[in-house]
Every structure is written in structure tokens, then in C-alpha cells.
Design brief:
With 178 residues, the chain is of the alpha+beta class. Strand 2 and strand 3 form a beta hairpin. It has one domain: START domain (Alpha-D-Glucose-1,6-Bisphosphate, Chain A, domain 4). Strands 1-7-6-5-4-3-2 form a seven-stranded antiparallel β-sheet. It is built from four helices and seven strands, in the order H-E-H-E-E-E-E-E-E-H-H.
Length: 178
């Protein structure tokens, strides 16, 4: 009987791993929200990493988080690095290109507790009632552990919820400056 249970457990684990390995390696997450005002208002808070403390959904998760800024003050070449507890981890963002009031392309590197490099894009489009800000991220879920993790945790939904919260805080930050 014991051997039967072991065989069943091994078969279930094998089936789970086989399923995880069939999952697509691409990760795509995108959320949009209309914020008040012209594109320049929201753009300024995103293009300058110092402004992220006002709206990032991860602010406040670790009061002891350390931050450093380098490269350009804002826009292309700006660099932001952070190191914090297990809720925020460690990483670096670099603005690769910035089209004023229209688009920002960021290289997002997670260094701990796992390593990954993703592309993040913000777009700013005039819309009824203000500016439609779209926050999108794309990357890959390579390796067995990332695929297993993505099955156990719906990353699109989890990251999407963070993006929605961040965009809401961005909207509030822009509205408070008006």
C-alpha cells in the first residue's frame, strides 16, 4: 500500500511538472488608466525615477528599502536601483529611451530573490478626461522553476493588480498637483 501511494505521488508530481513545462515562456502584462491633465503631467512622474516614490505600488512595502539613482536625472539614461526585504527584492531599472510626453522604454532587471530581465513600456495618449497611461511589461519565464512558479501563481493577474494599483496612485499624484 505504501509503495502504491509513493507511485501515485511520483506520477502526480511528474504530471504537474510536465504540465508546467508546456506553459508558454512569454510573459505579457498590460494595464491602462486615464489620469487627469495633459500627458506631460503623468510623463514627468514616470520619466524621473525620483517621482516613483509618489505612486509606485511597491512603495511602503519595506520602509527600510534603500534606493540609489544614477545616470541622467530623468529620461533616457536614468538609472534607479533598489534593495529591500523579500516583498520588494533587489533590482535595477534603466530608461533606454524616452519620447517626451509619449513613451518611455525601461529595462527592468530583478536581481534577488530571483533573476530576470524584462522590458517595461509606458505610453501616454491624450484621451477624454485627460491622458490614457498604459503600463506594459514583457519578458520570459525560462527555466523549470519559473514555469512551476507561474503555474502556482497567476503572474499576469498578480502583476496586473500591482499595475492597476500603481496607475491609480499615479492618477492621484497627478490630480494632487493640479
Amino acid at each position: 500500500m505504501f509503495l502504491y501511494v509513493v507511485y501515485v505521488l511520483v506520477a502526480l508530481i511528474g504530471a504537474f511538472l510536465a504540465y508546467a513545462l508546456t506553459r508558454p515562456p512569454e510573459l505579457e502584462v498590460s494595464r491602462s488608466l486615464v489620469v487627469p491633465g495633459a500627458p506631460s503631467a503623468a510623463y514627468g512622474l514616470v520619466a524621473d525615477f525620483h517621482g516613483w516614490t509618489q505612486w509606485s505600488p511597491w512603495e511602503g512595502l519595506d520602509p527600510a528599502m534603500t534606493r540609489s539613482y544614477g545616470g541622467s536625472e530623468s529620461g533616457t539614461g536614468a538609472v534607479y536601483e533598489w534593495k529591500g526585504n523579500n516583498k520588494v527584492g533587489q533590482g535595477r531599472m534603466t530608461i533606454l529611451s524616452a519620447d517626451p510626453n509619449a513613451r518611455i522604454d525601461i529595462k527592468l532587471e530583478f536581481l534577488a530573490p530571483w533573476q530576470a530581465t524584462n522590458k517595461t513600456v509606458f505610453t501616454f495618449q491624450p484621451a477624454a478626461g485627460g491622458t490614457e497611461v498604459t503600463w506594459a511589461m514583457s519578458g520570459r519565464k525560462d527555466g523549470v522553476m519559473m514555469k512551476v512558479f507561474s503555474v502556482l501563481m497567476n503572474m499576469e493577474k498578480t502583476i496586473g493588480n500591482d499595475f492597476e494599483r500603481g496607475l491609480g496612485k499615479l492618477r492621484d499624484a497627478v490630480a494632487s498637483k493640479s
